[in-house]
Amino acid sequence: TSVYDSRARERWRQIEEQKALALQLQSQRLQERECSVQDLVDLHLRVPLEKEIPVAVGPQGPERARPGQADEDFPEITEEMEKEIKSLFRGGNQDEVLSEAFRLTITRKDIQTLNNLNWLNDEIINFYMNLLMERSKDKDLPAVHAFNTFFFTKLKTAGYQAVKRWTKKVDIFSVDLLLVPIHLGVHWCLAVVDFRKKTITYYDSMGGINSEACRILLQYLKQESLDKKRKEFDTNGWALLSKKSQEIPQQMNGSDCGMFACRYAECISKDKPINFTQQHMPYFRKRMAWEILHRKLL
C-alpha cells in the first residue's frame, strides 16, 4: 500500500506542477497580446509547417533557410530506427542500462522520459550536453563546454567556492561557448556564454527574462579567472541578454521545456539559426532517444 500511495502522491504532484506551468504559460501568452497586430502577423509567418523549409528568426527578422538545409537539419528517422526507438519506450526492466558514456549511465527509466509528454530528467540532459561537446571537437565547429545540470543551482545557492573544483581539468576560457542548463524547479532553460561575441544570453521557451542568472554567470567568470588564471576578467564590452518570446521558438504545452533547452543548445553549438517549432518535438524526442542509445548525433 505504501508503494501505491507514494506513486499516487508522485503522480498527483506531477499533475499539479503541470497545471501550475500551464497557468504560467497562459498568463505569459496573455501578456504578449500587448504586441502590435503586425508583430503577431510576423510571428505567424515565422512558424514553419513540419514539411516546409524551416524559417529561422535572425537579427534582421525572418530569414529563409538555404535550400537543402531542411533535410540537413531534420534527417529522416528510418523504419529500422523507429523499431529501435519503440523498443526503448516499451515496458521492461526500468533499471536496465541502455547506454553508457562520459561516466554517465542511461537506464530504461531515464530514456522513457523522452517518450510522449514526459519531462526530461537530469541524466538525459547531461548525456545530450556531452554529445554536443563531443561533436564540438570537429575543427569546423565552435569549441563548446557544457556544465552539468546541477552546476547553476549549486553556484546560485552555495556560491563560487562550492563549484570552483568542477573545472579543475577544464579551461573554460579556451572555448568559444559555455552551455549552462538552468533548472527553475519545474522548468528548464538555457544560458549561453559566448566568448567571441562577449555575450551571456538566456533562452527560455516560456518567454521568461532572467537578468539575475546572467549576472551570476558574469560574476562566476570573474571569480574563475582570478582563481584559475590569477588575473582580473575584463568585463568591458560584455552584454547580458534575455531572448524575447518572439525571438526564439516557444513551447505550447507544459511538458517540453527540457526538449527546447536541448534544441536551443544543439543549434547554438553549430552556429546555426534556431529553426524548429513545437510541431517538431515528437520528431526530436525520438531522434534524441536514438542518439543517446548510439552515443552519436545525427
TrEMBL record:
GO terms for cellular component: nucleus. Gene3D superfamilies: Adenoviral Proteinase, Chain A. This is SENP1 protease. Residues 104-268 form the Ubiquitin-like protease family profile domain. One of its GO terms (biological process) is regulation of primary metabolic process. Keywords: Hydrolase, Protease, Thiol protease. GO terms for molecular function: deSUMOylase activity. Belongs to the peptidase C48 family. It comes from Motacilla alba.
